[in-house]
Specification:
The structure holds 2 protein chains of 2 kinds. Chain A is of the alpha+beta class. In chain A, about 45% of the residues lie in helices and about 30% in strands. Chain A contains 6 helices and 8 strands, in the order H-E-E-E-E-H-H-H-E-E-H-E-E-H. In chain A, strands 1, 2, 3, 4, 5, 6, 7 and 8 form an 8-stranded antiparallel beta sheet that branches. In chain A, a hairpin with a 4-residue loop joins strand 3 and strand 4. In chain A, helix 1 crosses helix 4 and helix 1 packs across helix 6. The relative contact order of chain A is 0.23. Chain B is α+β, with helices and mostly antiparallel strands. Chain B is about 45% helix and about 20% strand. Chain B has 12 helices and 10 strands. In chain B, helix 12 links the parallel strand 9 and strand 10. In chain B, helix 9 crosses helix 10. At the A-B interface, helix 1, helix 4 and strand 5 of A face helix 5, strand 3, helix 6 and strand 4 of B.
């Protein structure tokens, strides 16, 4: 997007990288094994462009955890768990006997919690770094075909532009890798940018 | 307006204490400001004692690390947090009847932490739901579903997969082989002169033969992906995924030799003095086009050829 400079992107990447680090720590505590989250890759999309293909989500079905954040700017943050990889890791974490499909369908509460951990970590690091206070609803969880989840998400957000964050999730000992997409649509992206600008100029001084 | 009809102070207290789940409210410093009756009952700590204390001091050894982290995060970042039962089981030392807590397991819990701000003071509401009943129900259902799915797919006499399970898996394996361009072999085996055996030795002996044949076939099919099923009567069927014609023929011959090697006496057999099987093998190579029904027919035809060629032998039809 033209209104976002390299500097903005770098700053946002740093914000979410700290968030990913925090999330990894919390997840490791739960799993009792080292969980790694990669440095997130940030991409902006026009809402109309958002499809499972555009987000490289090669999964027929998705589990989606959603939280509404409010504060200086409002944001709907959503975490998508693809079926084949991320869910396998989740199953590992829970030591569950369920199949991947059953897991996404039946373990709503656990999926909510995992999404909640990662979303909170990313958003709280953002709040810390930008020196703002964010409030949030409790997470909700939905599982459906990828197209329907994304359609609903775009319709509910009703924003022209959305920010996607690609994070790889790995549990070290198991050598398993997962793939998460974090979508954040801001009804006041301008506000977010103002705060990022403030943060960037703060570093300079 | 209903919003203006505020209940009296005392009514609130009764409300908290009537609610049949746990409610704990802590302030910014982590000190308890609300401790409802449910929590008092299951922790063994009365509200009068809990108020003004931190959870850590109330449960000195009982708090899980992840629960402590969650509380700290909720107070620090003021974002709501979920602690699911699936990942945490029982974060708080709460018991069905706390007085005898040594001999009982903790209550299974689902917990949510929600920050609340009132008059510029920050609080964190801890809601605890008892999920023991659903966990128990889940376990019972899980055991039942395991048993049912085993019953539904197993042949009662031989313990092999049944016809129904075979039909399902055959369609799936056939489609997979075509999709992934892999070979596939299908083996159909039939006990020679089995009717005569039953007539001579009786049905109980006949059943024993079927069980012995089934066990032998099962122990010979040593790849985890092989599916050995009882197709009906004295007929058995084996799916060999990824196995080409020559591989299928080798395995079929192994089956035939193993059954002959059981050396079960069968005086009325025209083939040998012992129990033998005839085997038909159908195989298709990657890229071959055929329908699942036709492929099954091929195996049946091969079996017919084996019967016609004197029994106790293997015939192959490749596509």
């Amino acid at each position: 997007m033209s209104f976002l400079s390299e500097l903005h992107l770098d700053a946002l990447t740093e914000v979410f990288n700290i968030g990913a680090g925090r999330a990894a720590l919390s997840l490791s505590e739960i799993v009792g094994d080292e969980v790694k989250l990669s440095v997130p890759r940030i991409q902006f999309y026009q809402s109309s462009e958002i499809t499972a293909e555009a987000l490289s989500l090669n999964s027929p079905r998705l589990g989606a955890v959603n939280q509404h954040f409010s504060g200086p700017f409002d944001a709907d943050a959503m975490l998508l768990f693809t079926e084949e990889r991320a869910l396998e890791i989740v199953r590992d974490m829970m030591g569950s006997q369920l199949s991947i499909e059953e897991l996404a369908e039946f373990e709503h509460e656990a999926m909510c919690e995992l999404g909640n951990i990662i979303l909170n970590a990313c958003l709280s690091s953002m709040a810390d770094i930008l020196n703002i206070t964010l409030h949030s609803s409790l997470p909700t969880y939905a599982v459906n075909s990828s197209d329907i989840i994304l359609q609903q998400m775009v319709a509910a957000a009703n924003q022209p532009v959305m920010l996607a964050l690609h994070i790889d999730l790995a549990i070290v000992r198991r050598h398993s890798e997962g793939y998460l997409v974090f979508l954040l649509s801001s009804s006041s992206l301008e506000e977010l940018l103002t705060h990022i600008d403030r943060f960037i100029s703060g570093i300079g001084t | 307006m209903s919003l203006q009809l505020k209940p009296a102070e005392g009514l609130w207290d009764k409300l908290w204490d009537t609610i049949n789940s746990g409610l704990i409210l802590i302030d910014d410093a982590g000190k308890v400001v609300l401790w409802n009756s449910w929590v008092a009952k299951h922790s063994g700590i009365p509200a009068g004692f809990a108020l003004g204390h931190t959870l850590e001091s109330l449960f000195p050894n009982g708090l899980s690390a992840s629960f402590k982290t969650a509380i700290a995060n909720a107070l620090n970042y003021r974002l709501p947090i979920i602690l699911s039962n699936a990942l945490h089981r029982s974060p708080l030392p709460l018991y069905p009847v706390p007085l005898t807590q040594n001999s009982q397991a903790r209550i299974e819990q689902s917990i949510s932490l929600t920050p609340i701000v009132e008059d510029a003071t920050r609080y964190c509401l801890i809601q605890i739901a008892d999920t023991s009943i659903s966990i128990k129900r889940e376990r019972v259902l899980h055991l039942q579903s395991e048993r049912l799915s085993k019953d539904a797919s197993t042949d009662g006499l031989t313990g092999l997969f049944n016809r129904r399970f075979f039909d399902e898996r055959y369609r799936a394996e056939f489609a997979r082989a075509q999709r992934q361009n892999l070979p596939l072999s299908l083996i159909m085996a039939d006990v020679d002169y089995f009717k005569r055996y039953n007539d001579t030795y009786g049905h109980t002996a006949g059943d024993k033969v079927l069980i012995a044949v089934a066990n032998s076939l099962k122990s010979q099919a040593n790849r985890a992906t092989d599916i050995v099923a009882r197709y009906g009567g004295e007929e058995f069927i084996i799916i060999l995924p990824g196995c080409d014609a020559s591989g299928g023929e080798v395995i079929a011959e192994k089956f035939r030799a193993a059954i002959a090697g059981l050396n079960i006496a069968h005086e009325k057999s025209d083939t040998a003095g012992y129990i033998t099987i005839s085997i038909g093998v159908a195989s298709f190579q990657p890229g071959a086009t055929c329908l699942p029904g036709n492929f099954l027919e091929k195996a049946d035809q091969a079996l017919y050829q084996a019967k016609a060629s004197g029994r106790n032998c293997v015939k192959l039809l490749a596509i």
